[in-house]
Amino acid sequence: MLPYYEDEKRFLQDLPHPLPSAFDMMISFATERGILLRDEVISAIQSVDHEVFLLPCFAQISKVDEQNARMATMYALLGFPAPIWVDPDGEVINSTAVPFVAAMISEGLQAPGRTRALIIGSGCGFAPAIVSILGFGSVVGIEIRPGLAAISRQTLKDNDFHDVQIVSGDASHWVKTHGERFDMAISFAALPDDSSGRGALQTFLG
User: Hey, is 166 helix, strand or coil?
Assistant: First the structure.
């Protein structure tokens, strides 16, 4: 446990008027505008401790940038995007906001089958874990950063998500060279709109 993590947590809990979480705000926003957030996705997300997936990332960041790691804890506790990786060149990689994860997975569940799922930009492993809980027998996550892939792979293993496989590599290359089919394929990473990116992603469905 990071030494300051519990301090930040207590600070939020002790506020006289607690701040609404990003998740609460997103549910309100989605309800008002008719955006689909499936109840089963919300329940799955609420059943998983998001901190379990974020803390190993924060610990790694704190080795090179403790100030960034401390800032990340506050954002994460509220459900907002938080830094989960810092590249050697200083580029900061953020997690996906929890409400957006809920919306993306809800949309992906429109397909009838739940045998296999593909998650591109699997990050800290939180999204693949949610998809696993939703009943997919096999989940493949692709993460381009080997260090982040290794952290998420270990976190998933430690928390008994044995049906999730994390692959380290470039998603555009992976979707071009694999002929596997999935019931759901979603991407939290930027992909080109041509046949090497989102066009290829569509070929996995069916």
Answer: strand
